[in-house]
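call fold(seq) -> C-alpha cells
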Amino acid sequence: MAFWVYENWTVKKAMVHRGECSHCNDGRGTHPGSSDRNGKWHGPFSTLAAATQAAARTGQPVSRCGHCKP
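ret:
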C-alpha cells in the first residue's frame, strides 16, 4: 500500500491519502494533467508515518483525507 501527500498552497494544507483513494489516484489526483498552480503531490511513501512526516516538512497544517481515512 502506498501513501501520498497533496500539498495545497491555495488553502494552505497538506493532506495525506491512501494511494487507491479516488481523490489521490496514486498521485494523479482527480484531474490528471492539470497544472501545479494550486499544489503538488509528494510520494509515494511506503508507510503512513513516512507520509505524515513528509506532510509536516511542507510547513503546512497536516490533515488526513476524510474519504479514505489513512
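Residues 1 and 68 are 13 Å apart (CA to CA).
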